[in-house]
Amino acid sequence: MSSLKPVKKENLSVKVYNEIRNALINGQYEPGERLIIGELAAEMGVSITPVREAIFRLISEQGLEMQAATAVYVPYVNSEKLREIQQIRFHLEGMGAAEAAKNITRKQLDNLIALQKEFISCTSTDPKRASALNRKFHFSILEASNKPILRATVESFWVITGPILKVFHIKTAGLDYSTDEHRHEAVLAALIARDPEAARTAIQADLVWGGQIMIDWLVEKEKEQQFLSTTPRK
Fold first, then answer.
1. Per-residue DSSP letters for 220-232?
2. N or C terminus of the chain: which is more exposed, having fewer CB within 10 Å?
3. What is the pTM of this model?
4. What is the maximum alpha-carbon separation in the chain?
5. Alpha carbons 175 and 122: distance in angstroms, whole number
6. In the structure, what pLDDT confidence band is assigned to residue 173 with cuts at 50, 70 and 90?
7. Contact 161/223 with Cβ under 8 angstroms?
8. DSSP type of residue 145
9. Burial class (CB in 10 A: 0-12, 13-18, 19+), 231
């Protein structure tokens, strides 16, 4: 069970929704994990009603799924669904990076450089922190794009893929990027040069690389499950 923050009484449904949504984006829940409405309400110090409203909103957005009348789960993302999401992110985050190259401030750029430096320093030792920093890097670019609808749309896909993105960083925890040029460096170079097309190409290359690793991993897991389900038991 994740650690959710207590919520104040005003605008409870929205606050509870944002808290659970952020927990999904942050990978605080595992794929397949069941969420108990009563337990969530107790953890956040609210009644069941705003939690139920938030849960149903997230179900409508595919961030959660209901398998029975009261059984709410974090969905498994299969390789086909992840491939579709990555294709959409490819275009939308490419657009976001191109817009960011036009609009980014010096302060926002310095923040991205600092995020990347910290990300590199912990990729091989702290996958959970690396996952959070990677997400923050991507969201900071979307923030710099000055396109709030674009940012909100992309974030909705991170709600669905947050749990598997965390698995990805745990899977690649042994990788050390400190001696090689990470793909984020090309993004930073394009933003510094204020080159929209270079920024678009760089972020898309990063998405293709990371997305393919996650998709390949899911394909292998799906093959293993298929083998197990078709192997006669002795």
1. HHHHHHHHHHHSP
2. C
3. 0.82
4. 65
5. 10
6. low
7. no
8. T
9. exposed
d(CA 88, CA 68): 30
Query: Cβ(155)–Cβ(17) under 8 Å?
Result: no
Q: Which residue, among 143, 166, 138, has the nearest Cα to 26 in the 3D structure? A: 166
| 39-76 pLDDT per residue, tens | 999 999 999 999 999 999 999 999 999 987 778 999 98
Among 23-37, 55-69, 117-131, which is the least confidently predicted range? 117-131
Q: Are 187 and 199 in contact (CB under 8 A)?
A: yes
Angle 91-95-101 from CA coordinates, rounded to 5°: 145
Q: How far, in Å, CA of 59 to CA of 69, rounded?
A: 13
Contacts of residue 111, defined as CB under 8 A and 6 or more positions apart, other chains included, come to: 140
Report d(CA 99, CA 66) in Å as an integer: 37
Reported for 185-188, long-range contacts at CB under 8 A and 24+ positions apart, including other chains, are 185/116, 187/97, 187/141, 188/109, 188/112, 188/113, 188/116
